[in-house]
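FAQ

Q: What does a record look like?
A: Structure on top, sequence underneath. For example:
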């Protein structure tokens, strides 16, 4: 099974390199860029499907870990919900771009801002986890 997965991964990597090489050789033609985007979206879809299938198989084979899985889902929903609430607190103002125009579609601006807020919240949670781990390690050493 591992050998088959390595072969599939090698083939996917080879196809990706060939498509990127074609895009570079073609000078970034519209067709080569479109094909590369579709390939990337396809790979993203396969990755999402693989993660969902792996999570489902793991949940079925180890039902004791279901609580941790549900806790993870709740945390993700809470982070995205908090970021979404922050995005809705103000109007999406147009943003100037380098071509002299502006990005003024409110939906696109809110989605981009949502991604930024999610990144900030996750980074803050990761930083807090590191600090708590370091402090608890120091406290444990002091108690011993």
């Amino acid at each position: 099974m591992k050998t088959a997965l390595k072969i599939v991964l090698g083939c996917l990597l080879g196809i990706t390199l060939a498509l990127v090489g074609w895009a570079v050789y073609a000078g970034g033609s519209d067709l080569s860029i479109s094909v590369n985007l579709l390939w990337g979206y396809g790979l993203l879809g396969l990755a999402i499907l693989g993660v969902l299938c792996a999570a489902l198989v793991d949940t079925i084979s180890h039902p004791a870990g279901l609580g941790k899985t549900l806790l993870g889902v709740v945390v993700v929903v809470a982070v995205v919900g908090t970021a979404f609430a922050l995005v809705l607190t103000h109007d999406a103002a147009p943003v100037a771009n380098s071509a002299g125009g502006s990005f003024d579609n409110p939906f696109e601006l809110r989605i981009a801002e949502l991604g930024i807020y999610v990144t900030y919240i996750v980074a803050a949670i990761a930083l807090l986890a590191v600090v708590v781990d370091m402090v608890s390690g120091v406290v444990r050493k002091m108690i011993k």
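Q: Is there anything notable about this one?
A: The mean pLDDT is 90.
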